[in-house]
Amino acid sequence: MYARRAAQLLQELSSCEEGQLPPFNGDKFDQVIRECEEHSRQFQSLIRDKDIETKNEDHYGSFIHHLSIIRNKRCLMAYMYKRAEVIQSYRWYVGRVLPREIQDKLNFSEQEYFKNYCSVIDSYMKDLDLDLTVDMVPPKDPCVRVRVLSEIGEVSLGDHAVSLTKDSFHFLRRTDAEPFISQGLMEEFVE
Amino acid sequence: MNMQFLSLKRKEKTTLQKPHPLGLGLSCFILRSSSNFISIHGRIGQGREKGGKKAGTDFGTQALKRRGKRSFPSQITSLPSPNPYPPTGIGASTCTMPGYYDISDILMEDEAVSVVFHVGANGVGLLDPGTETNSVEKGAKIDLPFWLAHELCRRRAVSITIPSCFGQKMKKDVQADAACVDLGTRYPYFYEFGCKLFPLVGDKSIGPFLRHTFASRYKEMLSKSHTASLNAIPKFVLRLSKEEYQLFEAARSSMVEFKKWRVRDLGLMKATILGHKRKTDLH
């Protein structure tokens, strides 16, 4: 009661590293919502048939319940907002497809949010005819040497096809290699 | 620096729009540090973010995003809502208020303070574990979370007693040796909490006390943070409050970047002949 559980939710979220998410704690979330309903019931019982202006004890009691509801709301909103921010960053730093571990941490509606966000970004990039998600750090070199970590097979990059077998070295354009590097299938070969 | 505290003393009621009381004072300290420090000087200095990625602090990216997303839900009680638009002008670089969604602000407000009720309140018996009826008596002494105490104090329903972290014992500890005071485990939100508590409590000495504490701790922290290694966590880091920890991280990452920058050219200009191994046998 009185927003302690909501604060625990936020503690959980803030204890994670930057850019990481804990699994969506649906149970606590629902408990906080039930607490809000409880506060609301108490509030209703305290202000029934009373004159709003008189500042008697019921007034202060109902005020405290009202403040608790506002506070719970703020905590839940902040929780959702922070998670939404991290999910947005996943599109930019991880890619269009989320690995299994990350997907398990997301709520159903968060997964929907991610899909919609991806489609918005994609339609924008299609209008610009420019892929904005590559080269998040300005590269020093347009081409990069890569070593393939796991078997990918035949991939057609631009006008020629490259067969990406395990542990083979290639000299590719950075824009072509980036999606594979971000998924962990290739690594950049730095001397 | 002193002007800030004089203005705080003169006015009895302060609103949240006041510039952060430590802001101006600390910017003087910052001017002596590297320029990197200025740009990623977390919450206390309230500096503007330049090149936000490097800061690595949550607050940095939030400061950038806050300018776009400012929609405060309507509230029945008229809270002095934080100024939605960052102020411009001379005071601008020292003042950005925590937003509605700011998690560390929410967690900070969850700290417990001891209050004395001036009025009774019905239906909230859970606040007071010792009560039998479902209400709080007038004159009861209860521990409330700060957000609740703050609102009730504004409406003169309670009065807040100064918590122990700003009491006499703490003042003596700080006088003895400020750098050894363990803020990280006991009061991680020491400075923020003090700044919010300041207008509600009658004690005018909290402001100068906070500034004095920070100033004494800053000297030592400055030198140690620039030379701290990346992997090991020095013991004194555990004693830092949240805001000081952000400064510490900023200093550490700026030193790392600086070292990288110093050796950047050597990689590109290394001639290929240097990569060949020398033949040891010259027969």
Automatic annotation (TrEMBL), chain A:
<comment type="similarity">
    <text>Belongs to the GINS1/PSF1 family.</text>
</comment>
<dbReference type="GO" id="GO:0000811">
    <property type="term" value="C:GINS complex"/>
</dbReference>
<dbReference type="Pfam" id="PF05916">
    <property type="entry name" value="Sld5"/>
</dbReference>
<dbReference type="Pfam" id="PF24997">
    <property type="entry name" value="PSF1_C"/>
</dbReference>
<dbReference type="InterPro" id="IPR056783">
    <property type="entry name" value="PSF1_C"/>
</dbReference>
<dbReference type="InterPro" id="IPR021151">
    <property type="entry name" value="GINS_A"/>
</dbReference>
<dbReference type="GO" id="GO:1902983">
    <property type="term" value="P:DNA strand elongation involved in mitotic DNA replication"/>
</dbReference>
<dbReference type="InterPro" id="IPR036224">
    <property type="entry name" value="GINS_bundle-like_dom_sf"/>
</dbReference>
<keyword id="KW-0539">Nucleus</keyword>
<protein>
    <recommendedName>
        <fullName>GINS subunit domain-containing protein</fullName>
    </recommendedName>
</protein>
<dbReference type="InterPro" id="IPR005339">
    <property type="entry name" value="GINS_Psf1"/>
</dbReference>
<feature type="domain" description="GINS subunit">
    <location>
        <begin position="51"/>
        <end position="128"/>
    </location>
</feature>
<feature type="domain" description="DNA replication complex GINS protein PSF1 C-terminal">
    <location>
        <begin position="140"/>
        <end position="190"/>
    </location>
</feature>
<keyword id="KW-0235">DNA replication</keyword>
UniProtKB/TrEMBL annotation, chain B:
<feature type="domain" description="DNA replication complex GINS protein PSF3 N-terminal">
    <location>
        <begin position="101"/>
        <end position="153"/>
    </location>
</feature>
<dbReference type="InterPro" id="IPR036224">
    <property type="entry name" value="GINS_bundle-like_dom_sf"/>
</dbReference>
<keyword id="KW-0235">DNA replication</keyword>
<dbReference type="InterPro" id="IPR021151">
    <property type="entry name" value="GINS_A"/>
</dbReference>
<dbReference type="GO" id="GO:0000811">
    <property type="term" value="C:GINS complex"/>
</dbReference>
<dbReference type="GO" id="GO:1902975">
    <property type="term" value="P:mitotic DNA replication initiation"/>
</dbReference>
<keyword id="KW-0539">Nucleus</keyword>
<comment type="similarity">
    <text>Belongs to the GINS3/PSF3 family.</text>
</comment>
<dbReference type="Pfam" id="PF05916">
    <property type="entry name" value="Sld5"/>
</dbReference>
<feature type="domain" description="GINS subunit">
    <location>
        <begin position="168"/>
        <end position="261"/>
    </location>
</feature>
<dbReference type="InterPro" id="IPR010492">
    <property type="entry name" value="GINS_Psf3"/>
</dbReference>
<protein>
    <recommendedName>
        <fullName>DNA replication complex GINS protein PSF3</fullName>
    </recommendedName>
</protein>
<dbReference type="Pfam" id="PF22466">
    <property type="entry name" value="PSF3_N"/>
</dbReference>
<dbReference type="InterPro" id="IPR038437">
    <property type="entry name" value="GINS_Psf3_sf"/>
</dbReference>
<dbReference type="InterPro" id="IPR055221">
    <property type="entry name" value="PSF3_N"/>
</dbReference>
